[in-house]
Specification:
Belongs to the DNA repair metallo-beta-lactamase (DRMBL) family. Keywords: DNA damage, DNA recombination, DNA repair, Endonuclease, Exonuclease, Hydrolase, Nuclease, Nucleus. The chain is an alpha/beta fold. The protein folds into 2 domains: about 60 residues, no CATH class; about 110 residues, Rossmann fold, CATH 3.40.50.12650. About 20% of the residues lie in helices and about 25% in strands. The protein is built from 5 helices and 13 strands. Strands 9-8-10-7-13 form a 5-stranded parallel sheet. The chain has a 4-stranded mixed sheet with strand order 1-2-3-6, with no helix packed on it. The longest helix is centred in the middle third of the chain and has 16 residues.
């Protein structure tokens, strides 16, 4: 049988351009989330999930369940994580200009919220390998740089952990103007909260 279906793309908040799919047809409404990251109350502000003053009647939800596990019940909010990272980065980078932070980001996308907020709060751009992926995103592009002489790095290397172990950033920097760098590593990963229960 043929059926007309209306498909609506909703922002998923996972990384720039990520979407959830809302399928609506004669046989009902289905929401497919894929990877998503929504704060409390954010879905309530999505007009396309509502019909008048009510939430649409959704019969089925295909949900990304990566963190639907008792080990992950205590994941702090994005705001709490940002606050902790900001405090650590601010205190470290204010010691000297040779105190730098490496954000050990395992994926290419999904950290933009962190980059933008660190840059805005501290006035320090984040070093990344290439600007290509953010070329059409001026709001993000303003906060990242390919200049290695910054105090916050999110550069990547195939053997990131080896680079850090020898006090070397993945981009190869070990010193600036002949002065050795003092590097701390921050691993912004939700998986960490499941691995480190205590």
């Amino acid at each position: 049988q043929k059926e007309d279906i209306e498909v609506t793309l909703l922002p998923a908040g996972h990384c720039p351009g990520s979407v959830m799919f809302l399928f609506e047809g004669e046989n009902g409404t289905v929401l497919y989330t894929g990877d998503f990251r929504l704060a409390k109350g954010e879905a309530a502000r999505m007009g396309l999930l509502h019909s008048g003053t009510r939430v649409k009647d959704i019969q089925s939800v295909y949900l990304d369940t990566t963190f639907c596990d008792p080990r992950f019940y205590q994941i702090p909010s994005r705001e709490e994580c940002l606050s902790g990272i900001l405090e650590l980065v601010r205190s470290w980078t204010s010691l000297t200009r040779y105190h730098v932070v490496w954000l050990n980001c395992k994926a290419a996308y999904g950290y933009e919220y962190l980059f933008v907020n660190l840059s805005e709060e501290l006035g320090i751009k984040v070093h990344i390998n290439k600007l290509d992926m953010f070329r059409n995103m001026p709001d993000i592009l303003y906060h990242v740089t390919t200049d290695r002489h910054t105090q916050i790095h999110a550069c990547r290397h195939p053997r990131d952990d080896d680079c850090f172990r020898w006090n070397r950033l993945p981009c190869g920097m070990t010193c600036q103007n002949g002065t050795p760098l003092h590097i701390i590593s921050i691993k912004p990963s939700t998986m960490w909260f499941g691995e480190k229960i205590k």
